[in-house]
Amino acid sequence: MKKIKILGIGGTISSLQSNEGFKPGISVESIIQYIPRVLEYYTLEVEEIMMVDSANLQPEDWIIIAEKIKDNLNDVTVHGVVLTHGTDTMAYSAAATSILLRNITKPVVFTGSQIPLEIFSSDAQRNLIDAIRVAGETNIAESVIVFNSKVYRGSRTIKLREYDLSAFETIDPFPLAEISRTIDIIDPFIKTRSKAQTWLDGGLNVNVALIKIFPGLDPKIIENLPELGYEGIVLECYGAGNIPILKRSLVKCIKNLRSMNIPVIITSMCIYGRAELYLYETGKMAKDAGAISGFDMLSEVALIKLMWALNKTNDFDEIKDIIYSNVAGEINTVIGPLT
Question: How far apart are CA 156 and CA 110, in angstroms?
Fold first, then answer.
């Protein structure tokens, strides 16, 4: 039988009720006991990496997770990898994995649940079975999220719903695949299995801030970030990447940061939008001041990518080239990149 490696991270799927509310407490070894029929089709090998609410995960943890995934992808006896993970930052971890690892050669499947496993109406069993099926039955060789019978690219997915079982959505027109009696691949551009070696491509510089602009934002908040040790900034801006240029203008702020060699990446706060810094005066002035377009990258993914870029280099032009490159499908190359 095919061997699937199950890596436990924690999250709602492993949570128990306590006096403080739900918190992780069920081991990944115990979790698979809730899906006994799967053992008729697959050999499941489990490993507990950590047992945390995903709200507690930090960039340093993404490196640990990526290292574990890499080791299992390079194990010829492992057919695919499944990670049980909390939903709050699952999209961050899936995106970080796709940015950090080169040559993902097998399915890397993140899943979890909206309802704890021990509650009768839990979605945990269905999601976990689907995740194992994707790891075992498909040729997908990417970091993906499997949730509510859908397969999403890790670098293009966001948690939109706190309560609904369909917690996640892709910002692409369609998911990679849909799961029913069969697993129907929708995206013709998925990466497929290979025999290459997977490797960890660098690390992460955690000194990056993600700031959502809003009416009334004092530019000093952004200007003072370098004093706190920040070396890069992602600004989530209006519409097509527009910033205020009259009262409380951010133009001078961006110029000052550029003079300090602090890269500023601009993304759109519209989930189905992109930073087109040539379109409006309020975007073009940001670009002329030195801001870099994040195109249609999710702000969370731009944050991770800038952390990764700053770990590689402090050269502004090299960072710009990295941001402009499509590393793991995080940029829609059909419509972009747009400068």
Answer: 14
Tell me, yes or no, if 267 is annotated catalytic.
no
Among the listed residues 12, 84, 97, 282, the single catalytic one is 12
Q: Which domains does the chain have, with CATH numbers?
A: 2-200 (3.40.50.1170), 208-324 (3.40.50.40)
List the one residue out of 84, 105, 110, 92 whose CA is nearest residue 15.
84
136-158: average pLDDT:
97
- Joined together, the tokens standing for residue 252 give 């001078």
Which of these, 46, 47, 8, lies nearest to 26 by C-alpha position?
8
Tokens for 68? 């574990």
Residue 332: what pLDDT?
85
Average pLDDT of the segment spanning 161-181 = 94
Is a pLDDT exceeding 60 seen at residue 225? yes
Taking alpha carbons only, the member of 76, 155, 99, 81 closest to residue 327 is 99
The yes-or-no verdict on residue 339 having pLDDT over 60 is no
Task: Look at the block and give the residue holding tokens 């000052």.
Answer: 256
pTM over 0.85: yes
Token look-up 């496993």 returns: 117
Query: Comparing C-alpha atoms, which of 171, 150, 203 is closest to residue 298?
Result: 171
